[in-house]
């Protein structure tokens, strides 16, 4: 099995609308669905891992999140792409032990590893924020930070930068070929 790829949602796969609660607001970033389809075709398990504190803050409900996710799945499917798993943290930064549950905490990644039997060592962690890619250092994976308006100026030394998800996936597929 090829190494799994953990993808952030907002600003990585879709346009970051900040506390998106309306399925109509789901807009794939250019080339994102095709990039996921390439990973699917290459045999990399793809997992969506997203902090959704809007649920914990009461801005939208779990059901609304599900509707948004359903729309995302539909748009991916139209491009022949799919997610092998989906993990979201409804917690707010103020919740007890939020770091274990929300990114950069390990909770969602450990659940994916145990539920899908994938190795975190050697996995790819892709996102537009440092907290998305920080688990790479902890688990011995590879961090690819995708530039978005939300990206931090400071980049951790273990991360590399890509202009888009499509560019990040290009590198992963090139590594597959050796
Ligand atoms: Mg993001």
Q: Could you explain the architecture of this structure?
A:
The structure is a single chain. By secondary structure, this protein is an alpha/beta fold. It has one domain: Rossmann fold (3-Layer(aba) Sandwich), CATH 3.40.50. It is 39% helix and 15% strand. It has seven helices and six strands; from the N terminus they run E-H-E-H-H-E-H-H-E-H-E-E-H. It has a six-stranded parallel beta sheet with strand order 3-2-1-4-5-6. Strand 4, helix 6 and strand 5 form a beta-alpha-beta unit. Helix 1 packs parallel to helix 7 (165-177). The longest helix has 17 residues, at 62-78. The radius of gyration is 15 Å and the shape is globular. Bound molecules: magnesium ion (MG).
List the helices and strands and how they pair.
Blueprint: E1 5-7, H1 32-42, E2 46-51, H2 53-56, H3 62-78, E3 85-89, H4 98-101, H5 107-116, E4 124-127, H6 130-139, E5 142-146, E6 159-162, H7 165-177
Parallel strand pairs: 1-2, 1-4, 2-3, 4-5, 5-6
Question: What characteristics describe this protein?
Answer:
6-stranded parallel β-sheet, single chain, binds magnesium ion, alpha/beta, 6 strands, Rossmann fold
Shape: globular
Strand order of the largest sheet: 3-2-1-4-5-6
Distinct bound molecules = magnesium ion
* DSSP strand tally: 6
CATH topology: Rossmann fold
What's the overall average pLDDT, rounded? 95
Q: How many domains, in number, for the residues? A: 1
CATH homology superfamily name:
HAD superfamily/HAD-like
- The residue ranges in which pLDDT falls below 50 over 5 or more consecutive positions are none
Overall structural class, as computed from helix and strand content, comes to alpha/beta
- Amount of beta strand: 15-25%
């Amino acid at each position: 099995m090829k190494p799994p790829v953990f993808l952030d949602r907002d600003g990585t796969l879709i346009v970051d609308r900040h506390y998106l609660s309306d399925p109509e607001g789901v807009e794939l970033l250019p080339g994102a669905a095709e990039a996921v389809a390439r990973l699917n075709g290459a045999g990399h398990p793809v997992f969506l891992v997203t902090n959704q504190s809007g649920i914990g803050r009461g801005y939208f409900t779990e059901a609304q999140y599900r509707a948004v996710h359903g729309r995302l799945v539909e748009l991916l499917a139209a491009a022949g792409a799919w997610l092998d798993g989906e993990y979201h943290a409804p917690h707010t930064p103020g919740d007890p032990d939020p770091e274990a549950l929300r990114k950069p905490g390990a909770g969602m990644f450990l659940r994916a590893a145990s539920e899908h039997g994938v190795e975190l060592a050697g996995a790819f962690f892709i996102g537009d924020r440092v907290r998305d890619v920080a688990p790479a250092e902890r688990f011995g994976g590879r961090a690819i930070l995708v530039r978005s308006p939300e990206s931090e100026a400071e980049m951790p030394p273990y991360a590399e930068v890509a202009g888009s998800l499509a560019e990040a996936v290009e590198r992963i597929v090139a590594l597959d070929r050796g």
